[in-house]
Amino acid sequence: MSASQQAFDSRELRQVLGAFVTGVTVITTLDRQGRPHGLTANSFSSVSLDPPLILWSQSLASPSHPVFREADRFVVNILADDQVDISNRFARGGADKFAGCQTDPGLGGVPLIRGCAAYLECRRIDSFPGGDHVVFLGKVERIERSGSQSLVFGGGRYLVAQPHDIGTLGAGSGANIARLKAVRVATRALVELSDELDETLGLGVWGNMGPTIVRWEESSQPISENLRTGLVLPVLTSATGLAFAAWLPPETTASFIDAELAQGGVDTASSDTAALAQRLAEIRATGMVRLLGTDAFADLYGTRISAICLPVFDPTGAMVLALTAIGASDRLDIGESGRLVTGLRACAATLSQRLGGLPPSSIPQEEQSQ
Ligand SMILES: Cc1cc2nc3c(=O)[nH]c(=O)nc-3n(C[C@H](O)[C@H](O)[C@H](O)COP(=O)(O)O)c2cc1C
After folding, report:
1. Range of the domain at 186
2. What's the CATH number where 128 sits?
3. 3-class state of residue 184 by DSSP
4. How far apart are CA 361 and CA 206, in angstroms?
5. Helix/strand/coil (H/E/C) assignment for every residue in 228-244
6. Taking a C-beta distance cutoff of 8 angstroms, is the pair 79, 39 a contact?
7. How many other β-carbons are positioned within 10 Å of the β-carbon of residue 57?
8. 57 CA distance to ligand 1 centroid (A)?
9. Are residues 350 and 300 in the same domain?
10. Chunked mean pLDDT (size 10), the chain, 370 residues
């Protein structure tokens, strides 16, 4: 297909290819004078187990391409997750890539970079033209694995791999294990959402002191320097607290609510049992808490804030996490159809589904349509 017929450009193609997450390797070899060469490559792939074959591809524009085209051997150094600097070093041009880099000689003297997760020492048995790249096929002659975690690359960024042991939570899962897993999954989602929305987001759990923020993700305009992990919030005057009050069993929250009512300082919407019951019922009906301009946290954040909070449910239907967004009330848009509310709603619904919580049919209509 000619370039003019393509419905995508190379930038879009790169982005799509970046959705395929890979490890990172540095391919090393020696030139005829015995000088080491190497480049960072994530085009590496296994081909065959018997015989043991692998491939990688190199850009024809790589200054080191003439060397690799000539070389009989190469080593695939699979980088460990603490070798981002090595990856960056070998992704740059220049003759001094090996200066200060600790290596050991492998078969034929080809350098093995110290500290890698694994090594494949290969003989080049073939090469194939592949557009603006050449594909090298290598026969694996010696292998080694160090046990270090591998570096990961995807979406144009270095990543760290974690085992995917979440699945759906079985009926036998203890509540604490369920919550730990939920925090792990939600933390990743929160980081992505905060990057996307550029708002301050918090992850709340019900701790032994009540509503507790276990993770903050700041926006580029942090609301305050007082965003402490472990911050315990009031039940009746915080969005996070009200969400737990609305969805946790009343016996869990009752003593905290009684203590706060006895202290006073609660707004009229929550000041007696009947008013509070109605407010919590409204929260359940809308599926979220919205606090528009409250001074309750002026001491903490130094400003009047608005906040919203969405619940995340576990497989037993219990609220396991609170997703909260806060911001100065004069700039945070907590409108029903705004980006923030829409984004948090979708995130909370997805998390509940991933945790085996709400089945799709029990998610409010408006969320399903997103
Ligand atoms: C994560 C990552 C993966 C890369 N994968 C490849 C690859 O598979 N093939 C390639 O030719 N260049 C790849 N590159 C780019 C080369 O590392 C870069 O062009 C390098 O400068 C080539 O080395 P040279 O200048 O010594 O020839 C990659 C770079 C990065 C950061």
Report:
1. 165-368
2. 2.30.110.10
3. helix
4. 26
5. CCCEECCCCCCHHHHHH
6. no
7. 18
8. 10
9. yes
10. 73 94 98 97 98 98 97 98 96 90 98 98 98 98 95 91 55 60 82 88 93 89 77 93 95 93 73 86 95 83 88 86 91 88 92 69 39
What is the position in ligand 1's atom list of the atom closest to the CA of 24? 1
How close is the Cα of 115 to the center of ligand 1, in Å?
Answer: 20
Alpha-carbon span 289 to 171, nearest angstrom: 29
**What is the structure's pLDDT at 261?**
87
Whether the CB of 152 sits within 6 Å of ligand 1 = no
Q: Is 28 in the pocket of ligand 1 (CB under 6 A)?
A: no
Residue nearest to atom 5 of ligand 1 (CA): 41
State the closest ligand 1 atom to the C-alpha of 91, by its place in the atom list counted from 1: 17
Q: What is the SS3 assignment for 6?
A: coil
Structure tokens at 176: 């604490």
Q: How far is the CA of 139 from the centre of ligand 1 (A)?
A: 21
pLDDT of residue 163: 62
Nearest CA to ligand 1 atom 15: 91
For tokens 């809308």, the residue is 286
Measuring CA to CA, which residue among 318, 41, 310, 50 is closest to residue 186?
310
Look up tokens 């096929």; give the residue. Answer: 137
The pLDDT value recorded for residue 318 is 86
Q: Model-level pTM greater than 0.90?
A: no
SS3 207: strand
Per-residue pLDDT at 60:
98
Of 286, 284, 262, residue with least CA distance to 272 = 262
Q: Which residue's entry shows tokens 């701790």? A: 207
Structural domains of the chain, count: 2
Asked if 152 and 189 sit in the same domain, the reply is no
39 lines ligand 1 (CB under 6 A): yes
Q: Is 59 in the pocket of ligand 1 (CB under 6 A)?
A: yes
Residue nearest to atom 16 of ligand 1 (CA): 91
Same domain for 362 and 243? yes
Strand order, beta sheet including 22-23: 22-23, 151-154, 157-160
Q: Do both 183 and 290 map to the same domain? A: yes
State the pLDDT at residue 299.
Answer: 79
> Of the candidates 217, 165, 167, 221, which has an alpha carbon nearest to the alpha carbon of residue 188?
217
Q: What is the pLDDT of residue 171?
A: 45
